[in-house]
Amino acid sequence: MRYSAFSLLAQAFRGHKGWTPAWRDPEPKAEYDVIIIGGGGHGLATAHYLASRHDITNVAVLEKGYLGSGNVGRNTTIIRSNYLLPGNTPFYELSMKLWEGLEQDLNYNAMVSQRGVINLYHSDAQRDAFARRGNAMRLAGVDSELLGQEQVRAMLPYLDYDNARFPVQGGLLQRRGGSARHDAVAWGYARAADSRGVDMLQNCEVTGITMVGGRAVGVETSRGPIRAKKIAMAVAGNSGRVAAMAGLRLPIETHVLQAFVSEGLKPLIDTVVTFGAGHFYISQSDKGGLVFGGDIDGYNSYAQRGNLPVIEDVMESAMALWPGLGRVRMLRHWGGVMDMSMDGSPIIDTTPVDGLYLNSGWCYGGFKATPASGFCFAHLIATGEPHPVAAAYRLDRFATGRLIDEKGAGAQPNLH
């Protein structure tokens, strides 16, 4: 069923009894051309682009829970492409362009809102660093604007400019950045992939990878063994555990990253704001809650929950930037399991195990990368060659020294 104003009107006259399920709930086949382990944003996007761009439809997406139960439903929904380094900038700009056409591509309302992203600066040195980043973005064809204090004050009058411990001097603005509804992104990709014949296998946990002659030829699951010509991993913070099933040890650490939402408020903040003197970022959801987050918890964990010191640290940053938040009640918080690479940039590559493909190391940037991650991973799986904008995301770069050290985007072992 295609969604449109006409279909909505037609269903209204039928009492909305004719809507079909967004995707099927099939039984596993004995064999697929491609198995994608992980039913989150990246796995579902990969399945969609395999089917829509490469005409590979004999594909199964395996998810141990329900679709979207991992990090894609546990983040702060920010999308942006304001990166500095050549290895990252083209990739995230491709992602931004895919975001801009996503709803038409999927025939699904992902609630993409290009409300702008402002990174605040608080010193001359930070201003110079942001100017450098903005210039690098412009050289790569990405929009950026360096704002002074009065320009920021006109856009964000509620911040503390006069009595702040870290006075706001200005900010770097990307107007095309913003946010999207995380759950809708997962649902849209799942529905679009399913419409092309991809099987969504929920409650299907991978318990082992079947090896024959050093090649991955299938997986053992809670719903029985499944064979495949190619196996693709897109399991975020569980990458290390799944890779270990094939005898691989990855150059990543798994950490918890917490996010928070306040009680619902009237429209208050119409953009995404990041605090330059601490790791804090905030926006407002369509339901009225203020959505914000900060640093990873700083210890290795697979638990989808956080600890109190990070809660305190995030709230301190919030109050330092915007004292009025002290009157707002926090509604809830949650944790996602991050696969933190050692240079802060992702890995999209083949592995030393023949037939096994890897998508991991997304650190803080996983949600914003969802479209480009799926697009490039599908290209790698289908052709055997890396997509040009993801060519730097090699697994062996940690051995060769060709790191993409994007400050503030990754695990930063020296700080944690």
UniProtKB/TrEMBL annotation:
Organism: Bosea robiniae
Places the protein is found: Cytoplasm
InterPro entries membership: FAD-dep_OxRdtase, FAD/NAD-bd_sf, SoxB
NCBIfam families the record matches: soxB
Gene3D superfamilies: D-Amino Acid Oxidase, subunit A, domain 2, FAD/NAD(P)-binding domain
Name of the protein: Sarcosine oxidase subunit beta
PANTHER family: FAD-DEPENDENT OXIDOREDUCTASE DOMAIN-CONTAINING PROTEIN 1 (PTHR13847:SF287), SARCOSINE DEHYDROGENASE-RELATED (PTHR13847)
Domain FAD dependent oxidoreductase, chain residue ranges per copy: 33-379
One protein family per Pfam: DAO
Location, primary (coarse class): cytoplasm
Keywords: Cytoplasm, Nucleotide-binding, Oxidoreductase
